[in-house]
Amino acid sequence: MDIQYSIGYAMALLVGLVIGLAGGGGSILTVPIFVYAFGISPVLSTTYSLFVVGVTSLVGSISHLWQKHVDLRVSAAFALPSFVSVYLSRRFLLPALPDPLVQFETFTLSKPNAILYFFVVVMVLAARAMIRSDRPEQGEAADGRPRYGNLALDGLAVGLLTGTIGAGGGFLIVPMLVLLAGLPIHRAVATSVLIIAVNSFVGFLGDIQHTQLNWNFLLPFTGLSIVGIFLGMYFARFVAPEKLKKGFGWFVLMVAGYVILKEVL
């Protein structure tokens, strides 16, 4: 195993660690890891990402459910529309996109490159959210009553994002659960992990009917990510996740810059 593969597997630990600490964010790295450390195509990388993020988050959510940190009613309001969106985008939208996606005279934008460019935009937005590291106030739900209609609409949007790029969207889910459902930050993180788990599995189910997978690679990578989420949940008892999220945000920003350089130069 060469150094590039070793770094890739080490990054699997980081993916789980961040999900365990902050309820999301680590999954934003899975696609770049698969593409640049293991040489996997961007489209297949999004499928692998959904599986890794789904299994890792499911393991973490079991612990949160056991401790009764998850708000199941809010989860259902956000997640059910999101499930529909993520499944349809994986099952029908992504396969239907033409390749090349855009072709005009000498300019050609391939489908894999378009996915990577969109991913970079999402990485920058995620990094910005983590670097700011502000805890949102209760917003619209300051009166203690969740805004279920708005949660459902946000669920549709996050499902589309998850289905398109294979990331869980936790950096979007956690603030929305605080602002629109009035959840305390620790319950928002726990609820986010459950939503990400099921969202990712639904998206993955939309893929397995037309995708051949390398389980000999995927399962060890997922196992390391699971170890990472246990480490994250352990360290979350002693370390403020916001401090680590800020440093991780800068790291994600650097990775986004690396992707841009690789694709442009």
From TrEMBL:
Transmembrane annotation, as ranges: 12-37, 43-62, 74-94, 114-131, 151-179, 185-205, 217-236
Predominant location: membrane
Cellular-component GO terms for this entry: plasma membrane
Membrane topology per record: Multi-pass membrane protein
Xref: InterPro entries: TM_pro_TauE-like, TSUP/Inactive_protease-like
Keywords: Cell membrane, Membrane, Transmembrane, Transmembrane helix
Compartments (UniProt record): Cell membrane; Membrane
Keyword Membrane attributed: yes
Protein family (similarity comment): Belongs to the 4-toluene sulfonate uptake permease (TSUP) (TC 2.A.102) family.
Protein name (Swiss-Prot/TrEMBL): Probable membrane transporter protein
